Structure formats: C-alpha cells, structure tokens
Amino acid sequence: METLQLWLLLLAGLSGAVAQEDLYRKVFVFRKDPSDGHVVVKPEPERPLQNFTVCLRSFTDLTRPYGLFSYATKAQDNEILLFKPKPGEYRLYVGGEFVTFRVPETRMDWEHVCAGWESATGIAEFWMNGKPLPRKGLRKGYSISAEAVIILGQEQDSFGGGFDVYNSFTGEMTDVYMWGYGLSPGKMRAAYQSLQLPPCALGWRNLQYEIKGDVAVKPRLRDALVI
C-alpha cells in the first residue's frame, strides 16, 4: 500500500501525469507568476446542473486578478467561474454572467470560500471562512451543461484553454470540492472546519486530476483552518 501511495505521488509530481488519490493534508503549489500552469480535475457531471456548490481553500500574496475554479463548456467558457479580481472582492459567474461579493480584507492567510447557486430561485450565495455573505440573484432558470472541462488555477477563455497568464493563480490550493446541489448552512460550516462532508462528484479525498505545467503536489506546511 505504501508503495502504491509513493507511486501516485511520483505521478502527481510530473507535469501531465494523471493521478487519483486522497490529498488529505496536501496542496497544489502553483509555483510561477505569471504562468500557464493549471490542474484539470475530473469527473465532470453526468447530467446538466440545476444547482451546485463549490468549496476550496487558497493561500497567496497576489494582488492582481486571478482565477481559482473554472468550469467551461463548448458553448460558454464562463459556465461556472470563481474569480478574484482584487483583494477584498470575489466574483461568481454562472452562464457568463456574474455577481460580486465583497469580503473583509484579511492579513495574508488561507481563505476558505464556498459558492452556491440554485436555478429555481436564481439565488447565489457565498461563504468565506465559515461565514455567509448577503445572497444575490443570478441566472434564474438557467441550466448548466454537463459537457465541461474543469480547471484549477486559470480562467478558461475557450473550451479547455485560452488562458491569460496575467489572470493565473500563484500560491497554494487545497480542499477542493464540488456538489451538484446546495449545501445546508451546517455543511457549509463543516467544509470550513474540515469535518465530515456529504458524498460529492469531485472531492479532495478522492481526486482524479492531471497537472499541466508548473504545479506540484506538496505536504501542507501549516494548518489551513483558523476558527
């Protein structure tokens, strides 16, 4: 078993290699600024989405714009996009349209964010470090296509590519999850606290991914959770 885990780590450390493993207490390190480095994650949803929740942690000293989570289809490059245009602000895109969430500016530290959306009401919600921000309206009645490419660390301007390196992420990322439904407030807080979470199609503890470019898998240096 230890030999298998070591082999998976070696594969993960090679650009372009495919791996599937439990990444508990590990991070993706996006090493270069600017860069076209990114991580392709799977599986894609099996059917169109009427609801979703995306959660992740990031750690960076960037002050320029950068993309964190990009879900693109052939018809729409910003089908789902979690983007940070500047310190103290996040944007959530659904179907090419976006809403802005203004967050408290913090000292340089890990930021845990969860973004959720439901088609029936068009309600978008955003949680930062276990606390909700005021909800907003976005693309009521829209349906998100299932045929997608999901990328971490870049904003896709075309299906699977079209990157602007000056919108690339540089830093560390961990605890990436996606659900095809909205999480309850209790589960949003549980995601921040790294507690047990409901089953999901895309999860950090059993992630299938492919590294492209200057990205490495490394142990986490310090605890990402500050309660």
TrEMBL record:
<keyword id="KW-0964">Secreted</keyword>
<dbReference type="GO" id="GO:0045087">
    <property type="term" value="P:innate immune response"/>
</dbReference>
<keyword id="KW-1015">Disulfide bond</keyword>
<keyword id="KW-0732">Signal</keyword>
<dbReference type="InterPro" id="IPR051005">
    <property type="entry name" value="Pentraxin_domain"/>
</dbReference>
<comment type="similarity">
    <text>Belongs to the pentraxin family.</text>
</comment>
<feature type="disulfide bond">
    <location>
        <begin position="55"/>
        <end position="114"/>
    </location>
</feature>
<keyword id="KW-0479">Metal-binding</keyword>
<dbReference type="InterPro" id="IPR001759">
    <property type="entry name" value="PTX_dom"/>
</dbReference>
<dbReference type="Pfam" id="PF00354">
    <property type="entry name" value="Pentaxin"/>
</dbReference>
<dbReference type="GO" id="GO:0001849">
    <property type="term" value="F:complement component C1q complex binding"/>
</dbReference>
<dbReference type="GO" id="GO:0046872">
    <property type="term" value="F:metal ion binding"/>
</dbReference>
<feature type="signal peptide">
    <location>
        <begin position="1"/>
        <end position="19"/>
    </location>
</feature>
<protein>
    <recommendedName>
        <fullName>Pentraxin family member</fullName>
    </recommendedName>
</protein>
<dbReference type="InterPro" id="IPR013320">
    <property type="entry name" value="ConA-like_dom_sf"/>
</dbReference>
<dbReference type="GO" id="GO:0005615">
    <property type="term" value="C:extracellular space"/>
</dbReference>
<feature type="domain" description="Pentraxin (PTX)">
    <location>
        <begin position="24"/>
        <end position="223"/>
    </location>
</feature>
<keyword id="KW-0106">Calcium</keyword>
<comment type="subunit">
    <text>Homopentamer. Pentaxin (or pentraxin) have a discoid arrangement of 5 non-covalently bound subunits.</text>
</comment>
